Amino acid sequence: TVTRVxxxxxxxxxxxxxxxxxxIQGTARAWPxxxxxxxxxxxxxxxxxxxxxxxxxxxxxxAVRRMLGRPGSQEFVV
Length: 78
What we know:
3 helices; mainly alpha; single chain
């Protein structure tokens, strides 16, 4: 699954309960050195039996909740 930066920002806004509009600034190419896409392979971990239980978007939302100190945000910590 690929998540755009604006989608990540929207998750942060939602978790922070902010009613703000996202404004994109910059050029179509952003800035020199910007990473347009990052993809991590989990093939080796999968081969060892690991399975993701959350999507990337869900993981970001959980991380934001933890940073905000929301109740229940530690439920997935083992």
